[in-house]
Amino acid sequence: MAYRETAKTRAKADERRTRIEQAARHVIARGGIAAASIASVAREAGCSSGLIYTYYSSRDELLRVVFARAAGHELAVVEAAVESASNAADIVDSVVEVFVRRAVTGRTLAYALLLEAVPESVQIERMALRRGYVAAIASGIEGRYQTTTSAEVAARALVGSIAENLVDVLDPAKEPPSVSAVEALITELSVFARTAIGEQ
Amino acid sequence: MAYRETAKTRAKADERRTRIEQAARHVIARGGIAAASIASVAREAGCSSGLIYTYYSSRDELLRVVFARAAGHELAVVEAAVESASNAADIVDSVVEVFVRRAVTGRTLAYALLLEAVPESVQIERMALRRGYVAAIASGIEGRYQTTTSAEVAARALVGSIAENLVDVLDPAKEPPSVSAVEALITELSVFARTAIGEQ
DNA sequence: TAAACAATTGAAACACAATTCAATTCTTTG
DNA sequence: CAAAGAATTGAATTGTGTTTCAATTGTTTA
User: How many structural domains comprise chain B?
Assistant: First the structure.
C-alpha cells in the first residue's frame, strides 16, 4: 500500500549522514570551524541546508560530532605512538614527533582542534581530547618510569609544551614553516621533554 | 557665542572613556569576554550603548583595548618576577608561582586572557601577550643559564606547561580549586620546570 | 499505476547582537 | 539668557547566519 522504511532506505540515510560529516570535515580542514557554516557544508555535501537538520538538531551538534570524530582519530594516533614506545624517553620522543608532524601536515585541522575559537559544545570535546592526550602520556610514563613529579602534571606539561610551541606554526595568518624549521622544532622539543622527565 | 572644546570638556571625556574601560574590565572579570556585550558594558558604565561608539569604533576595538591593557598588566607582573630572580631556577619558580596564583585569584579574567573564545582582533593581543611571556622568560634564562635547548623553545614550553595545567583549574564549569590543590600544583610545576631547564 | 508517505528543497522566518542616527539634553560663550 | 554646537540617548535598523516548513520530489507497495 505504501512506502515504509527498509534496509535500502536506511543504508541511503547512513550514506547521506556520512557524506554530510565528510563534507563538514573537509570544510573545517580547509577553512577551520569558522568556515563551517550550514550553507557551506551543505554546498560541499551536495544537499540543501534544510536536509542537514534531518540528521543533526543544530549546527553545534554537527560540529560537535565531527570534531569528536577527528579528535578521536588524532588521539588514537598518539595512543599508538605511546604504546609502541619502550621507555619514557621513547614515549616523549614519539609523542613530540607524531604530534608536531601531524599538526604541520594538517595545519588548519590542527588549528581547529587546538586553538581556534569554537562553540561551547565543541569546547567540551576539545577538553576531552586534551584529557585524552594527558591520560595516554601519563599512563605510558607512569608504569615505566619514576618521574620527579606526578605523571599527570608532567603529561599535561608535555602537551602544553608542544601545543605552545605550535602556536606560531599553526597561525593561519603566517606562512607554513619550512621543513628544516619543523625538524629543528622536533629535535629541540624532544631534548626538552626528555630533560623534563629526568631522563638522560 | 558658542560651545567649544575645553580642558574641562576633555577631562570629562577622558573620565568617560576610563569609566567605559573599567566597566568592560569588570564585566569581563565577572563573566568573561562572552558577557561583554555592548549593552552590558553600557549598563555597567552607566551610559547608553550609543555612547560607547563615540569612544570606540566597534565592540571588537573596545575589547581589544581592554584586553591589551589587562594583558600588559599581567605581563608586567611576570616581568618583575623574572627580574627579581637571581638564577634560572629562581626564575622558573617565581614565574610558576606568580602565574598560578594570579590565575587562581582572577579566575575568570585569566580564563579570558588564556583560553576563552575571542574575536580575531583580541586573539592578536593574546598572541602578543604570549610572546611577551616567552620573551621575558627567555631573556631571563638566556643570560644566566646554559639550557640544553634554545631558551625560546624552553620558555614557550614553560608557558605552555603552566597554561595547560591551569586548564581544569580555570574551567568556568568547574568549582574553584582548594588552597591545598593550588599549593600542590605550584610545587609540582616548580619541580617540573626546574628539572626541565636542567637545574636540580 | 495510484496511493501513501518519506526525503528533500530553498526561500522565508527568526534570533540576536552590533551599529546607527534623529531627537533630546547638556555646556559653553557672548 | 539665547544661540551654537557638543554629548548623550535608545529605539529602530542592519547584518549575518541558523532554523523552519510548505511545497516538491522520490520511493515503496498493492
Answer: 2
Closest nucleotide relative to residue A48's CA, C1' based: C9
Nucleotide nearest to B3 (CA to C1'): C28
The burial of A174, by beta-carbon neighbours within 10 Å (0-12 exposed, 13-18 middle, 19 or more buried), is given as: exposed
Cross-chain CB nearest to A192 (options B153, B171, B185)? B153
Q: What is the DSSP letter of B198?
A: T
In 3D space, the residue among A15, A98, A39, A191 whose CA is nearest the CA of residue B154 turns out to be A191
User: Domain of A56: which CATH number?
Assistant: 1.10.357.10
Q: Which of B146, B192, B194 to mutate to test the interface with A (most CBs of A within 10 A)?
A: B192
The DSSP secondary-structure symbol of B33 reads G
pLDDT in tens, A91-122: 999 999 999 999 999 999 999 999 999 999 99
Q: Would you say residue B1 lies in a domain?
A: no
Same domain, B40 and B81: no
Q: Supply A100's cell numbers.
A: 608536531
Distances (CA, A) of B16 to A193, B20, B42, B46: 50, 6, 11, 10
In a domain? residue B2: no
**Residues of chain A (27-56) having a beta carbon less than 7 angstroms from strand D:** 37-39, 49-50, 53
Q: Using a CB–CB cutoff of 8 Å, tell me whether A160 touches chain B.
A: yes
CB contact under 8 A, B195 and A198: yes
Span B74-106, pLDDT tens digits: 999 999 999 999 888 999 999 999 999 999 999
Q: How far apart are CA B136 and CA B152, in angstroms?
A: 10
A183 interfaces chain B, CB cutoff of 8 Å: no
Per-position pLDDT tens, chain B of length 200: 677 777 888 889 999 999 999 999 999 999 999 999 999 999 999 999 999 999 999 999 999 999 999 999 999 999 999 999 988 899 999 999 999 999 999 999 999 999 999 999 999 999 999 999 999 999 998 866 666 678 999 999 999 999 999 999 999 999 999 999 999 999 999 999 999 988 75
Chain A hits for B197, Cβ within 8 Å:
195
Distance CA A11, CA B134 (A): 53
